[in-house]
From TrEMBL:
Keyword Protein transport: no
Top-level taxon of the source organism: Eukaryota
PROSITE patterns for this protein: RAB, RAS, RHO
GO CC annotations on file: plasma membrane
GO molecular function: GTP binding; GTPase activity
Residues that span the membrane, as ranges: none
Major site of localization recorded for this protein: membrane
Organism the protein comes from: Anaeramoeba ignava (Anaerobic marine amoeba)
One GO BP annotation of this record: signal transduction
Keywords tagged on the record: Cell membrane, GTP-binding, Hydrolase, Membrane, Nucleotide-binding
Keyword Nucleotide-binding: yes
Name used for this protein in its record: Ras-like protein
Compartments it resides in: Cell membrane
InterPro entries, alphabetized: P-loop_NTPase (IPR027417), Small_GTP-bd (IPR005225), Small_GTPase (IPR001806), Small_GTPase_Ras-type (IPR020849)
Length: 255
C-alpha cells in the first residue's frame, strides 16, 4: 500500500512554480501559460524502493490571492517555498511564506526552500549563502533549481516526499508511544486499585489463624501501603505463638 503525500508549492508570482511542476510531471519546459490560481496534479513515484502517491498543489502567487493562502498552509503535508535567484522581492516573500508556515503548521513541518532559475547565473541577485541562511532559519534546506534545464527538479520533489514520509512515521511512532504509556498507566492504576481492595480485606481480617498472621506479616514487610493499613496488628504475637508446619503450609497456600 502506497503512502500519500500532499505537496504545496508556494512563492511569489513569476518565480517559476508552474514551470517546476510541469518540468517534473512532463519533463518539459513550458513558457506559454496563464498565471495559476490553483492547479492539482497527481503522480505515483517510487521513493527509496517504496511507492508514494504525490498530490501536488501549484498555488497562486499573485497578491490578489493572498486571502486564500492560509488554506494552502493547512492543507499540505510538505511544502516547497520558491523564490527566483534574480528577484530580491521574491526572496523577501519567500521569507514571509516561511514565517506564516511556521506560525500555522509549526517548526517541524517538512519544507524545502528552492532558489529557482539557476540557469540565469549572470542575472543572480540572491547568493547561495543568503538562500542557505534563509533555509536554516526556517528549519529547511536549500536546493537551487532550473525549470528550464531540469537541474535538481526531480530531487526537490523526491526529497520533500521523503521528508513527509519520515515525518509521518515519526508522528505515528510518537502516537503509539503515547498510547502505550496511557495503557500502562491505566494498568498500573487498575493494579493499585485491586491491591488496595485486597489490603483492605486483609486489614479487616480477624487474624486468629496463625497462617493468616504469617501471610500478613510478610505483606507488612514488603508493602508500605499495606503497612499503613495493618499496622494495628500485633505481629510480635507471632514470636511467642507456636506456629506449626501445618500453619506454614496454610500460609503459603493462602498467599
Amino acid at each position: 500500500m502506497e503512502d500519500n503525500c500532499r505537496i504545496v508549492i508556494l512563492g511569489a508570482g513569476s518565480v517559476g512554480k508552474s514551470c517546476l511542476t510541469l518540468r517534473y510531471l512532463q519533463n518539459k519546459f513550458i513558457t506559454d501559460y496563464d498565471p495559476t490560481i490553483e492547479e492539482n496534479y497527481r503522480k505515483m513515484v517510487i521513493v527509496d524502493g517504496k511507492p508514494m502517491l504525490l498530490e501536488i498543489l501549484d498555488t497562486a502567487g499573485q497578491d490578489e490571492y493572498r486571502s486564500i493562502r492560509d488554506k494552502y498552509f493547512r492543507s499540505g503535508d510538505g511544502f516547497l517555498i520558491v523564490y527566483s535567484i534574480t528577484s530580491p522581492q521574491s526572496f523577501t516573500e519567500a521569507s514571509s511564506f516561511h514565517e506564516s508556515l511556521i506560525r500555522i503548521k509549526g517548526e517541524k513541518t517538512p519544507t524545502i526552500t528552492i532558489g529557482n532559475k539557476s540557469d540565469l547565473e549572470t542575472q543572480r541577485q540572491i547568493s547561495q549563502k543568503e538562500g542557505q541562511e534563509l533555509a536554516k532559519k526556517s528549519n529547511s534546506v536549500l536546493i537551487e533549481t532550473s525549470a528550464k534545464t531540469g537541474q535538481n527538479v526531480s530531487q526537490c520533489f523526491e526529497d520533500i516526499a521523503r521528508k513527509v514520509r519520515d515525518w509521518k512515521q515519526a508522528l505515528k511512532a510518537k502516537s503509539n508511544e503515547n498510547q502505550s504509556k496511557t495503557s500502562n498507566t491505566l494498568k498500573k492504576k487498575k493494579r493499585r486499585l485491586i491491591t488496595r481492595k485486597k489490603i483492605l480485606f486483609f486489614s479487616r481480617a480477624e487474624c486468629n489463624d496463625a497462617s493468616e498472621k504469617i501471610f500478613l506479616k510478610k505483606k507488612f514487610e514488603e508493602n508500605n501501603n499495606f503497612r499503613i493499613r495493618v499496622e494495628f496488628i500485633n505481629f510480635n504475637e507471632l514470636e511467642t505463638q507456636k506456629v506449626g508446619k501445618n500453619d506454614e503450609r496454610k500460609a503459603k497456600n493462602f498467599e
